[in-house]
Specification:
The chain contains three helices and two strands; from the N terminus they run ααββα. The chain has helices at 4-29, 33-37, 69-78, and strands at residues 61-62, 67-68. It has a two-stranded antiparallel ribbon with strand order 1-2. The radius of gyration is 18 Å and the shape is elongated.
Length: 89
């Protein structure tokens, strides 16, 4: 489990990106790079990092399922992910 402070910080970044998205688009369209530089750093979407929806883990993230590899494995073993079965050969 990730630190709750890190998960909350990431949620705040997502909110900041959403808040300034329209303004960033307008400034880019007008090529006002000075205005862009005056926006908060966390308003840039490149500062976002994918985190597991269950555990908040930042590494081993599977985009299709929006969870980490560890959470994916646990849910797959329990049969809670439709269409996923454990293979054995």
């Amino acid at each position: 489990m990730a630190k709750k402070s890190k998960v909350i910080k990431e949620l705040q970044r997502q909110a900041t990106v959403a808040k300034y998205a329209e303004k960033r688009m307008e400034l880019k369209k007008n090529k006002d790079y000075e205005g862009l530089s005056k926006l908060p750093r966390n308003a840039s979407p490149t500062r976002l990092h994918n985190r597991c929806q269950i555990s908040g883990r930042p590494r081993g993230y599977l985009r299709k399922y929006k969870i980490s590899r560890i959470a994916f494995r646990e849910l797959a073993h329990k049969g809670q992910i439709p269409g996923i079965t454990k293979s054995s050969w």
